[in-house]
Amino acid sequence: MNDENLSAFYSSLLTNLQKKGRRSNDVAEAVNKYQGLVQKVKDHGDRLSALLVSKRRLTEKKSVERSVHAETSTGEATPDTKWPSSLVTKKIKYQYSTKQKYSVPARRYSGMDGAQSMSRRLQKHAVDPHTLDLDIHNCAFQVLHQIIQKTQPKPALPKDLADVFEEVTTKRAPPENLKKNEAMSSLQKISLYIRWVAMNLLYDDYMSLKENKDKTFPSASIMSLMWQSVEDMIVQAWAEHVIALKPKHISLHFDGIRVSKEVASNVESHIEECQEVIKEKTGFTVSIVRKTHGTFRELVAERGAADEESDFSAESEKATSSRKHSEDPEAPLVIDDGILRMLEDEVKTLLEQAKKPKHPVNGRHQCPGCPFRSFKERRRLRTHLEKYHVLKNQYVSSGTKQLKVILALYDHAASSQQTPSNLLQKSASLIRDSVKPPLPASNNLIDKQIRLIHDAAGPRYVNVCQLEDELHVRRVRNRYYTKAFGDLILKEAVLCYAQADELQHLCFIKVY
């Protein structure tokens, strides 16, 4: 989709939200969100337009090169083709914001045609091929921690909070107690303390922020000003060192720098050198890392390669997946041993119940473990349980589709921190309730008579005859889906910029 379609889509959502009357907080938040998205799409288009330059024909110095381009002009490109470079040189002026005057410098901003103002998707294509994106890792925490150490405010940060602050700023992953949200109150107290320090160090600036009606949280703004002023000093020293290397490209990106690849043939050595220069000139110790920007296709390919190379132990495999089966939908489905034991115990319980006298329903005895199988005589039900609900069939006599429902029920219970139970009976009941009209009571195997339909209201199994007579569905190979489900996928894909992980999460929330 292009920017006009995206802008029209977000504007239509805004039109539906901007109705007369008093807005609720949720509606006001949604309006602000979509207004920001419309502006972001517009800015993206403006920045892209600013990058466009008039193309001019380049004259090659060698006749051999001219002949290569002559061949490629007819569309006969070769793997060794050398295309003319489309790189251009631009001098960008960086300025501090003039919206609010401060006693210390904050961040520097470029114009619309600077690399700093480009989106990550645009940087991927415009500057990523010939530059390195280097950033200060965890910049705010690293700088704030050292500011507290250097200024030594009185009263000092309490020891327990100082330990938490130290752990958060020096480790990539949060400590175990933070993962369980047990120390969130400690982080809130640390934030309050740092804001108090910033208000005292930059008192005049804080008072001017309090008088600004547009600043609704002046204590947070002054804390940002404090660490961003140090960040600017660090980037200034860093940039001066890199400029001395005479790179063909350098651009400032707030807490990092983009620099030509030729000045950093050995990236690790270059990063260590820059860290030492920053320490020497500013007194602050920072950790610089290289950022990479992958397209959706590249990230999928990288994830697939990582999955192929991973060697999971038996314990990790058991913890991360309840199933062991081929990605081929036609391949046999094999259930985890733990689930098989649960199904075995359930079948034993059903056999014990079948030995007790019970009145038939509508003249038949329903098998609790099958969606539709039933019998006129109770002894035949017992024979069926003993003959077909066995390990050879993974205790399921109806086929693969009921096995898939069992796995889904097990995963749902595990993710909800519940103990799975009666998987055989629950899966049979789900299929029995959704498939209308019901299948013949004499059929054991039902896989060829039902189909899974993906719908916006949730997945469900239906009778094959419904596909032809009543339902209007679309088919992709062996998958059927409704128009409502397709609309849901398209809508959520637009809202999350087609990011696969987020798209899957949003669709799961909508459906379930």
Short structural description:
The chain is an alpha+beta fold and 512 residues long. The protein has helices at 3-17, 25-51, 63-73, 120-126, 139-151, 159-170, 176-179, 184-201, 203-211, 218-243, 267-282, 296-309, 314-320, 337-354, 378-388, 400-415, 423-434, 464-469, 483-495, 500-511, and strands spanning 95-96, 108-109, 131-136, 250-252, 256-260, 288-291, 365-366, 374-375, 450-454, 460-463, 473-476, 479-482.
Describe the protein.
There is one protein chain. This protein has 3 domains: 1-49, no CATH class; 105-293, no CATH class; 312-511, no CATH class. The protein is built from 20 helices and 12 strands. It has helices at residues 3-17, 25-51, 63-73, 120-126, 139-151, 159-170, 176-179, 184-201, 203-211, 218-243, 267-282, 296-309, 314-320, 337-354, 378-388, 400-415, 423-434, 464-469, 483-495, 500-511, and strands spanning 95-96, 108-109, 131-136, 250-252, 256-260, 288-291, 365-366, 374-375, 450-454, 460-463, 473-476, 479-482. The strands form 4 sheets. Strands 4-5-3-6 form a 4-stranded antiparallel β-sheet, with helices on one face. Strands 10-9-12-11 form a 4-stranded mixed β-sheet. Strand 7 and strand 8 form a beta hairpin. Helix 5 (139-151) packs across helix 10 (218-243), helix 9 (203-211) crosses helix 10 (218-243) and helix 19 crosses helix 20.
